[in-house]
Amino acid sequence: MKNFKFYRHLMSGVSQMIPFVVAGGILIALAFLFDVNNAGADNYGSGNAVAAWFMNVGGTAFGFMLPILAGFIAYSIADRPGFVPGFIGGALAMDESGFLGAILIGFLAGAVIVGLKEATKGLPRSLNGIKPVLIFPLVGTLIVALLMTPINLGLEPFNAWLTDGVQGMEGTSAIILGILAGGMMAVDMGVQSTKQLTSQQ
Predict the structure, then answer these.
(1) What are the angstrom distances between the C-alpha of 170 and each of 52, 166, 173, 179?
(2) What's the whole-model pTM score?
(3) What gap in Å lies between CA 173 and CA 185, rounded to an integer?
């Protein structure tokens, strides 16, 4: 785990996740557009067959968001063997620990696979072929699934509190949150653009 780069691993997951968010968000927006006559109803966005189709596809794209985030964080740390445990860990985080849980389990999954690589170095060379297709995904996934239990238990109350706080924001508080979120995104994009320009020079 020498020269561990937290930001690089995190952004590896985020950059792979963003296309799923964009595609899913646009498809869901189209679902509402095609169901505009049903605005205000409980089934708004799924009030007709076309809108329901767009909502289903967009929701499916959104559903891959956290598994992809965690999977590619683990992939960045441990290479290809880290992807499966990270992906499954992200899926397990979806209903309870959410975004924070997916980030945490992505890093832990990567660390688990790095540890397994070290632990299996002494195995006979004849077993090298089954390490990436059996040992790493199976053992790594089992360990990650066990780790998800305390993570979900610990982060679920915090996520619930955070969600309630955001949903309860009105007026000035909501505007301040929007300004902060927009400013953080702008800074991050600016940093990335500067790095790209610097690398091209």
Answers:
(1) 30, 9, 6, 14
(2) 0.78
(3) 18
How would DSSP label each residue in 149-164? Answer: HHHHHHHHHHHHHHHH
Domains of the chain, by residue range, sit at 1-63, 80-168, 172-201
If DSSP codes are grouped into helix, strand and coil, which group holds residue 171? coil
> What's the half-sphere exposure (Cβ side, CA atoms, 13 Å) at 136?
28
Fill in the amino acid letter for 126.
S
Q: State pLDDT tens for residues 25-63.
A: 999 999 999 988 888 788 888 889 999 999 999 999 989
| Residues 6+ away with beta carbon under 8 Å from 98 | 66, 155, 159
**For 129-166, what is each residue's pLDDT tens digit?**
899 999 999 999 999 999 999 998 888 787 777 666 66
